[in-house]
Design a protein that fits this description.
Elements lengths: L1 H23 L10 E2 L6 E2 L19 E4 L3 E4 L10 E6 L5 E5 L4 E4 L7 E2 L8 E6 L5 E5 L3 E5 L7 E2 L10 E6 L5 E5 L3 E5 L7 E2 L8 E6 L5 E5 L3 E5 L7 E4 L6 E6 L5 E5 L4 E4 L7 E2 L9 E6 L5 E5 L3 E5 L19 E4 L5 E5 L3 E5 L7 E2 L18
Antiparallel strand pairs: 1-2, 3-4, 5-6, 6-7, 7-8, 9-10, 10-11, 11-12, 13-14, 14-15, 15-16, 17-18, 18-19, 19-20, 21-22, 22-23, 23-24, 25-26, 26-27, 28-29, 29-30, 30-31
Length: 384
Amino acid sequence: MKYLYFLYIILLLHTGSITAQQVDTTREFINYRRTDPNSQPPTSYYQQPKEQVFPPGWNTGTLGKVTTGTGVWTELNPKVPRVNYYGIYFLNPDTGWACGGSGAIIKTTDGGEDWTTAETPVTSLLFKIHSYNGQIVIAAGFENTILRSSDGGETFEQISSGLSSDTKFWGVQMLNDTLGWICGMYQTLLKTTDAGLNWQQVFPGLNQHYWSLEFFTEQYGFIVCGGGKVLKTTDGGNNWTQIQAGDTRALYTIDIIDSLHIAAAGEGGKNVYSSDGGVTWVTNFDLPVLTATNWIEFVNIDTGYSVQDGWEMRKTTDRGQNWFNPNTGNLGGEWQIELFESGTGYSTGYDLFVYKRTDGLDNWKNLFLNNSWSDVFFIDEMKG
């Protein structure tokens, strides 16, 4: 009788786990860029994301979760915060960082096989992370958060920006050991010349949100903005030129392929391409997703990838004129892509999804296989 009762409990647990899995696979996408286009600058109606974190005390060193009636569960693999990961940056095919909800930053030095969790002093959402030399690492995100590491991304300290607490940062790039940039909401642009210890405001003169930035050299860089505007500098940010790239839909991401060829994408699948250093832009057909394109990355002047809200990756082989799903099904993160000439690539997004490809093939696979539970089994009343 005792055995039958125990078996009945196991069946209930098993059934419950299936139900939970069905619920968890209903993915809720939050439009972080929700705005009122009739106001100048556009008024934002942002909501903090609904983060699911397990273990709940990961940033205090707790790697297990106590649940009433079931004893203590110990995390075996992966030992990382269970949050949405939005930003990812790899110094080389092996060493990289990812950042996301609840102030989480994780690091790998073996191409994603193993990860360690960095110590951070915040619980706010982190959107982007970057490093030039692997020693100084800068992360930025919501709630006026700038984090700086001087030990290779093992521990982070919070750095003041001098801006209001509701400032949201969307892009960060370190150009050398000391020079770096951060962009964000309400024409926010910050510059550091001392490796991220201090940040000064820069005013390019465009009253829009600054969604993303990229510098090709210390002198030559672009910012993509609301209203379909592009800001271009050729003198290290001392002067900026405003360029209209396509229609007035916002641009959220830009990739400088070389000094002449540049791709950008954004709201509603909009994607544009320049072959003359950003002076003029060709408007391509919209990406066949009609959602926000969050990142675009090219491996050469013809072939590139994009990720967007909606759990799909897209690929082009003709400079963005046509896009298709590269036989990945619904795989691929929604927020960022990192690609290397060696053929290694990474992508990250919602629901603990961090993907990797190898050998230049579209063989993307999720590095964290147990991002959601699918089964439960006990060998006795205590162990399972």
